[in-house]
Amino acid sequence: MMPVATVMPDDTPMFDPNILHELDWSENTTTFSPAISPLDPGDGLVLRPLCTADLNRGFFKVLGQLTETGVASPEQFIQTFEHMKRSGDYYVTVVEDTNLGQIVATATLVIEHKFTHSCAKRGRIEDVVVSGECRGKQLGKLLTSTLTLLSKRLNCYKITLECLPKNVDFYKKFGYSVSEENYMFQRFFN
After folding, report:
1. Tens digit of pLDDT for each residue in 40-89?
2. CA angle 176, 180, 182 (to 5 degrees)
3. Taking the CB of residue 145, how many other CB atoms lie within 10 A of it?
4. pLDDT, tens digit, 9 for 90 and up, residues 82-113
5. CA angle 93, 84, 53 (to 5 degrees)
6. C-alpha gyration radius of the chain
7. Is 100 in contact with 127 (CB distance < 8 Å)?
8. End-to-end CA distance of the chain
9. Residue 85 and which of 10, 75, 126, 142 are 20 to 30 A apart at CA?
10. Percent of the chain with pLDDT over 70
11. Is 104 within 8 Å of 45 (Cβ atoms)?
12. Cβ-proximal residues to 9 (8 Å cutoff; 6+ apart), any chain
């Protein structure tokens, strides 16, 4: 039996970072004070696509401040990353503090292909979280604004997200409204 090749984490992005740099920030509807943008998220910060090396830059530590992440081996992480990358429908975006070499915020845009609305696409924002020590730097606003504009650029007919009632007012700042539909689920494991 031949040994399985081990893939090492590297800085290859999940998606082309140019798509973030090419967003028309003039279409942003949220104000930032002080002004920040995808190209200039703040001193020592970089907004970019997730890469596998972020496994060693605290990606799971930040994500764990939002929800249970469980235990994933480096191989599982890389396999899931590669699956998402190949699909072309996942835009896991992070903010890295380059001074610390650590991920301090993340959010995900998932594109869902539909048969409805003339075979349109729907965007869905998930897993928005900012590290506790970086809250108040507008990074959640920046990620949400960026992914909202990205979904528009990708020609989604709508974008949705789920949030706790206490976060509704935060997302209304971006033009989101509360749906009359109920969010329902079944959980099969944690």
Report:
1. 999 999 999 999 999 999 999 999 999 999 999 999 999 999 999 999 99
2. 105
3. 23
4. 999 999 999 999 999 999 999 999 999 999 99
5. 55
6. 17
7. no
8. 35
9. 142
10. 96
11. yes
12. 51, 52, 53, 54, 55, 56, 74, 78
